[in-house]
Amino acid sequence: MVKRPILALIHILESFTEWTGKLISWLTLFMVLVVVAVLLLRNVFGFSAIPLQESVTYMHAIVFMLGAAYTLKHHDHVRVDVFYHRFSHRTKALVDMAGFLILLLPVCVFLIIYSLDYVIFNWKIKEGSSQPGGLPYLYMLKTLLLALPITLVIQGTAQFLHNMAYLLGWKALPHGTDEDTEAVPQVTGDQEMKHG
């Protein structure tokens, strides 16, 4: 009875991370185009576009802070892997679950608690750029201090549940295995007719 809701929740959480990660990835292309535009304006036309320059900082922060969960989902973070790759699937699942509970979750909770008052204060005063003519949305940028740990907790929870589902026999493989998407073969109507 509990199996279906948990598997559905895993799918929803991981889909959210995947969707946001792919959306943010397009921002890197736009960021490069803006940097080229800033350089052309400054060096060719002698025009200093402060809002454009600051927008690059905003975009870089968004890519870095909101892309962390996507990176976690695809196991692309740098980590020391001396023993982990030799572990069985079951041991890897247990290590990942413990890592979430002992390391990732406490750090994210700390970041949320530590940043919350600071972000609220910035929203109250509507802090803007210190540069004349700069972007007036610095308080929104600082909200990423909360968005980073929240998105990491979302993805970490998805991975924890995925590994738990594997240990309970609800998933064929633990999270992070290359064959995740191909673990359970889909039987088509033609295949059913052949076996029938």
TrEMBL record:
Q: Which UniProt keywords apply?
A: Cell inner membrane, Cell membrane, Membrane, Transmembrane, Transmembrane helix, Transport
Q: What is this protein called?
A: TRAP transporter small permease protein
The scientific name of the source species is: Kangiella profundi
Molecular function via GO: transmembrane transporter activity
Q: How does it sit in the membrane?
A: Multi-pass membrane protein
Q: List membrane-spanning regions.
A: 23-44, 56-72, 93-116, 136-154
UniProt subunit comment: The complex comprises the extracytoplasmic solute receptor protein and the two transmembrane proteins.
Primary location group = membrane
Q: What family is it from?
A: Belongs to the TRAP transporter small permease family.
Does this entry carry the keyword Transmembrane helix? Answer: yes
Superkingdom classification of source:
Bacteria
Transmembrane among keywords? yes
Q: Where in the cell is it found?
A: Cell inner membrane
> Where does the secretion signal sit in this chain?
none
- Give a short account of what the protein does: Part of the tripartite ATP-independent periplasmic (TRAP) transport system.
Describe the location of the Tripartite ATP-independent periplasmic transporters DctQ component domain by residue ranges: 31-161
Q: Name one GO cellular component term.
A: plasma membrane
